[in-house]
Prior knowledge:
By secondary structure, this protein is of the alpha/beta class. The chain is 27% helix and 26% strand. It contains four helices and ten strands. The chain has an eight-stranded mixed beta sheet with strand order 3-2-4-5-1-8-9-10. Strands 6-7 form a two-stranded antiparallel ribbon. Helix 2 (78-92) runs antiparallel to helix 3 (96-112). The longest helix is centred in the middle third of the chain and has 17 residues, at 96-112. The chain is globular, with a radius of gyration of 18 Å. The mean pLDDT is 91.
Amino acid sequence: MSKAIIGVVGSSGTGKSTSLRNxxxxxxxxxxxxxxxxxxxxxxxxxxxxxxxIKEFDxxxxxxxxxxxxxxxxxxxxxxxxxxxxxxxxxxxxxxxVWSYYNRMIRATLEKVKNDRAVVxxxxxDEIVQIAQPSGDTYNVRRIKVQGKQHEGCIEKxxxxxxxxxxxxxxxxxxxxxxxxxxxxxxxxxTPMGMFKDAYIDNDxxxxxxxxxxxxxx
Length: 218
């Protein structure tokens, strides 16, 4: 059975990278396209591969997939991956060939990460877009941001789970960083039926992975 592919999506400062803090460092590969450091105390213990270009990214991903001890692969981030990929495509091709190469490479990466050993986590920035209906009405959708028409609104179908990061503040002013587990009609958040009883859970990806193990072992 293929392991879960999980999207952790939200705006900057809402806890995407911090949600990685309780993963096991010796069983996790972090492919770091952002190259800005990780915002938690034990980050130095993780196997982090900084990647400045697509060649380095492909090499790091192949290494992680080949590591028999690896149980979690984090791609930090999908947003930076697409930005780097489109820059490469524009420097290498012209016209339609730019988008043909870009779309083909995204498809190849999404297929490559489907494996039976390691959970794969993509972090990414979200966007809010207005969708027109045949009636002429419009509605807002919050989804994973991606360049290119072919993949707009379609990346989520490749993931078993899409968790949106949010910052909640209670009446006393206390702040809680959370994942939204299922859609509220605006986001594309999703998790398997019955895996989580609450619409919002603490933003700890290690807890999510353990919940998935129990869910599929039942």
